[in-house]
Amino acid sequence: MISKVLVANRGEIALRIILACKEMGIRTVAVHSVTDSESLHVRYADEEVCIGPAASRQSYLNISSIVAAAEITGADALHPGYGFLAENAGFAEILGECNIRFIGPTPEAIRLMGDKAKARSTAVEAGVPVLPGSDGPVRTHAEALEVAQSIGFPIILKASAGGGGRGMRICMNADQLQSAWETARNEAERAFGVADVYIEKYLLAPRHIEFQVLGDHHGNIIHLGERDCSIQRRHQKMIEESPSPAMNEGLRKRMGDAAIQLCRHVNYTNAGTIEFLVEGDEFYFMEMNTRIQVEHPVTEAVTSVDLVKEQIRIANGEKLSVGQDVQLRGHAIEFRINAEDPVTFAPNPGKITAFHAPGGPGVRIDSAVYAGWVVPPHYDSLIAKLIVYGGDRAEALARGRRALELFTIEGVKTSIPLHLAILDDPRFQKGEFSTKFMDDFLKRK
Amino acid sequence: MAFLTFKEILELIDRVAERGISAVEVESAGMKVRVEGKRGEVAAARSVDLPSNAAPAPAPALQSPAAPAPAAPAAEEAESEEGLHVITSPIVGTFYRTPNPEAEPFVSVGSQISKGQVLCIVEAMKLMNEIEAEVEGVITRIYPQNGQPIEYGEKLFAVRLS
Fold first, then answer.
1. With a cut of 70, which residues of chain A have pLDDT below it?
2. Stretch (H or E) spanning A385
3. In the CATH scheme, what is the code of domain B85-161?
4. Where in chain B do CATH 2.40.50.100 domains reside?
């Protein structure tokens, strides 16, 4: 039985994990950088260990500091949260060797799904639809044209060694291919040292819909429905909701089954999320995240399942507390509140001089900030998550508006005004949006 | 049973200050009090602008240190740290004064140290990390007990520089 969990993270998710542990009577150890010494998650944990200076590399990413902290406090388990070391298979392995239980999937699953190429071919093996594409890099323009024509335009050229949106070129038709091909290869070479590019079908206006999964060590694997995360800017999610306004029972069944199929194929355990791109009635595997996600409260709201407690239970060797008959009830929306300029998106660290969170029915705030807290510049700008729940989408929207209007954060700029503007948008109100929404929305402003 | 009276809390504060204890926490009947002694250099390196304690209801937000609150460093008497250079730990681990259980300590109070000299070991993950002096001078104080768990930035030695 896990008796003491070291929380290897910071901010709101560290606090979230501590809350679950408190409910289960499990003691907690907070590790923190010098900058986070007065942080709320540090105050609420039973024990704390300073593991390094501000820089993440020397603190929250510092494996030896974190493992040493577990040793000196006698922690028998560790929860990595999201980001930082959450999907570092080597870290999970080291913990295993030190007899510290990693609250998450196996190192093998992390490694397999962390490699985009391997994850994609695993999905293919499992019979899960993937975006049509070339099998590996395309060597010549002639080959590129052949592949593009068999897939069908529009296509996107992507750097094999790349990521982060670089070394990518969209190509709408065969005429554009020659120059797109050359540009993509040049960029890839400059950015990643390798000119290789591969081709994928390009969806013009897909929705990003992900499925939450849970697997225990007794062979039970379930999905807990979807989250629509299409409201993104530069691949950063801003608003997530469940159920997806674009979902129907048939599609949910097909996608849910595919998610479970993939998990069974890799013997997945603990929590995970499978991301799909959806256009019309077609869905394609994009990637799998082998960790708890930022937007997990959305699923918690519509299923009444405490996902973090489930993670701990699974790590304890217990069976899932719910089955596939888990129901999605009502509608939940999460708004990510960042300390940033709502117009320029420039990060806005600084001292929070006033903080009052809204309450009332159907409102949940996940935050580790407080009046007097200095938001440091060293980490990401997320300072709070507002999750609203209602009987239907209309009620959730109304609650979202009401809660955002009454959410007082002073001293730093936040994305609250931007969320209110999005709520005013008729397309958003109707639930008619794709991953292109934010680009269009910002252009129109 | 009644919790500490106000008078008892004041006494507790005086004792903590007198004995150079870094922190004491008392919990009883659903109430907790934590008294912290004056912190030295490491705390100053943190935020100068200490946040106001906006403690959320119901109980004040409190923490226990990972290391047990060290009793006043035994024979090495508490001295004011003014004018002294404090060596802090660059890593997390367990503090050892000797290279092995049978050997003599690397240094003691009064030891003359030079740059590069090994002062102690901080053990983590079965690795014995030697902490070397970056200054020259005389050790006036050794903060942790032998075998004590220490965190990053924890005070190890006070040195009067030569």
1. 162-166
2. strand A382-390
3. 2.40.50.100
4. 85-161
